[in-house]
Amino acid sequence: MGLVKERAGARAQRLTTGIETWVDREVAGCEFKDERLGRRFCKLLAQIGSDMGQSIPLVCQDWANTKAAYRFFSNERVDEADILCGHFEATRGRVAATEGPILVLHDTTEFSFKREKPDLIGLRARRQDARSAAS
Q: Between 63-74 and 35-50, two packed helices, what is the crossing angle to 10 degrees?
């Protein structure tokens, strides 16, 4: 329980130290089909931005907010362009305000799950099952 309170306190501190300003700038160019969707997106972005890398249920902190987040992402009136247009506009503004070179970094990591001997996949599970059956 202490970790949850600690996380919530750290999250609240991040929210009051400029993340809301960042969210406002980032979504300024968004045009959702309904004003309520825009408000929900701002709230959701602030929640996710306050604890980057965490799962939606963890950053939303309760079932109602988690369900609202998933409902937002599955809403037929919201598409990728609606979500990203504000970010693209904000990015253009940041690029225009920058003098000198701009580095565009991206991750090209690829994973291959191919194996030289695919018949060995799951071998450990079979051994455990055999041990269980022998007991």
A: 120
The C-alpha angle 71, 76, 90, rounded to 5 degrees, equals 85
DSSP state of 77: T
Question: Along the chain (135 residues), what's the average pLDDT of each consecutive run of 10 residues?
Answer: 50 54 83 88 88 89 92 91 89 90 84 74 53 56
Predicted TM-score (pTM) of the model is: 0.58
Spatial distance between the Cα atoms of 3 and 7, rounded to a whole number of angstroms? 6
State the alpha helices, DSSP H only, in the chain. 2-14, 20-27, 35-50, 56-60, 63-74, 80-96, 123-134
- How far apart are the C-alpha atoms of 22 and 75, rounded to whole Å? 25
Angle at 99 between CA 94 and CA 103, to 5 degrees: 70
Return the residue matching tokens 């994973």.
111
